[in-house]
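Question thread 4412

I'm putting together a teaching handout and wanted feedback from people who do this every day. The idea is simple: show students a protein as raw sequence, then show them the structure tokens that encode its fold, then repeat with a second protein so they can compare. Below is the first pair exactly as I plan to print it.
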Amino acid sequence: MIDAAVPFELAQINIARLRAPLDSPQLKDFVDGLDPVNATADASEGFRWRLQSDSGNATDVPVLGDDWLIVNLTVWRDLDSLTRFMYEGLHRDLMRRRREWFERLAEAVTALWWVPAGHRPSVAEAEERLTHLRRHGPTPYAFGLRSAFPPGPASPVPGTAEATAADLARAREANAGDVCTVG
């Protein structure tokens, strides 16, 4: 059951593999668009936070151990706020040109998940969510734009000690009253 007193916000990571160095003529329009797009995001209704380094953006933040990947990590009030920003205005215009600047990746490049209001995810947390989505498909722990789950706490990651403990607790509860003897 979800505790209505604990509001949730939507975290998202998306990554892109560059076709050329950021300082190349090929990426000039993309780089020139970063500050205006970030300013639009910062002023958007429902925007809560974005990862940024001293440069004001996150293009120099390492992600997944790949020097050609760049990361965008943000938190929004809800899915509607995020999608409104994504598909309107300058961001939409730049997205239409993404194949000029970024390689097409076979794996998921975007993951979403609910976080308690005020939580600011680390890059490591976001990498874990994206990796989980790639391995397990959409779950409350990590999902995509087309497979969103309602706000609330996420299920533990399968295979972790937290998940194993939760599975054991559910099994004990399901078998309460059963008697088992070994002998």
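The second pair follows. I'd like the answer to focus on this one:
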Amino acid sequence: MTQDITPWLNEIKALQEKIVKLQTELNVAQDSASKWRQLYNTEAQQRRTETQLAQETIQTLKAQAQKLQGFPSVEESIDESATTIEQQIENLQTLAEFKAQIIKVVQERDRAFAQVQKLTEALEQEQVNHTNTRTSLTNALADAVDILAKAKANKQQKSEITPDIQSKTEANIQAQNQIPLEESFSPNAAKLPPN
């Protein structure tokens, strides 16, 4: 009889080891998902900060470019900018000074436009990088969630199998316990030698 129980006990032990292994895999998958989620949030915050800084820089450079072109910025009134321009023109006494000042202003304007263009391109590239990062992190997070779901399904499947094995094992043990009781009630029954 004990030989009949041994395979069942071995199978129960193997299933318990599998459950422990699956629980470990589930814990690892949950830790991995948590790490990916944290990385995604960190990367997203970094991208938002960089985008905000780039937009502020672009706004500053646009304001400088408007000043160099002679257009009043939003903060300045039209009268103040006209007065400033008139004062600068009155300080110029010769045509050569006037030409030099115009060349200087045009060069500064061109540099500002080039810098705005570079920052705009950098912002666009950063937005593309952010989108790519978000996509890859979202895919990794989805993979981690799939692994978690599979591990959970395997755990539930194993836990459904385990009660069936336990009930069969309990039935075998009860059947073995009943045999000695029946033998003790029948005095004429032949005695089996002990194992």
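Top answer:
Good format. For the second protein you could add a caption like this: The helical segments are 2-69, 78-91, 95-185. The chain has three helices and no strands.
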